[in-house]
Design a protein that fits this description.
Oligomer: single chain
Mean pLDDT: 87
Shape: globular
Helix content: under 10%
Low-confidence stretches: 217-222
Distance between the termini: 20 Å
Largest sheet: 5 strands, antiparallel
Number of domains: 1
Number of strands: 10
Strand content: over 45%
Length: about 220
């Protein structure tokens, strides 16, 4: 089995045209508010993996969808100011989310911390899960200066958007199976920020045989 990044996109909007995808793909959305106290509405069909709010100055959410076709839509993420989306694919089975964590800073700082996770794939006896254990990192900043383009060490930047009128959002990933993911700092331009990290692992369910519409958000839940 092989996990691959397929495509990514972003928008300074409450909806976005999803990147190229096909049935069985894991679609990951990161939505953020950087200038207000609104609550982001999660559209039908998505499952929340991580949610973060700090003193109501910023909000962010990571959510996932397992595609049942090549024509999925984002829906409307009401109150969101920035959206970033990435598509991942395993060569044989559906992907699931394993470990996850989130954090942030509610006062201006020049450091964003992509938090440590305990990868589920490393604690299982399943060789297929270990072989497809990837990490995906998410960053949100209150400033739009482009500094989130720098990924954590050992990650690759996939999506970055500096908003025209609000902050910046980014998605990075490990681009390889992992053995560990420690807390990792990246220097950015000063601002409030959020960060999250999730693990993607082989679910053990074959795409060709599993029923359509199944959404895997965490290990042990479907």
């Amino acid at each position: 089995m092989t996990t691959s990044f397929i495509a990514g996109t972003s928008a300074e909007a409450t909806s976005v045209t999803l990147p190229s995808h096909q049935a069985g793909d894991m679609i990951v959305m990161y939505a953020g508010i950087v200038t207000g106290t609104g609550t982001i509405t999660i559209p039908s069909g998505w499952r929340v993996v991580c949610f973060r709010a700090i003193n109501n100055t910023m909000s962010s959410v990571v959510a996932v969808m397992t595609a049942t076709s090549g024509a999925e839509v984002s829906g409307t993420w009401t109150s969101a100011e920035l959206l970033a989306c990435a598509v991942y694919r395993d060569s044989v089975n559906y992907l699931r989310v394993g470990g996850s964590n989130q954090g942030g800073a509610n006062s201006p700082t020049t450091t964003i911390t992509y938090p440590a996770i305990i990868p589920y794939g490393l604690s299982t006896s399943s060789s297929s899960m270990r072989a497809t254990s990837w990490v995906v990192g998410f960053g949100l900043s209150s400033v739009n200066t482009g500094s989130l383009e720098t990924p954590p060490t050992d990650m690759t930047n996939r999506v970055t958007l500096a908003g025209a009128s609000v902050g910046e959002i980014a998605i990075h990933d490990r681009n390889a199976a992992i053995s560990t993911w420690p807390s990792t700092n990246v220097t950015i331009d000063a601002g409030n920020n959020h960060a999250a990290v999730i693990e993607l692992v082989d679910s053990g369910y074959a795409i060709a045989s599993a029923s359509g519409g199944t959404i895997f958000n965490v290990i042990g839940a479907a």
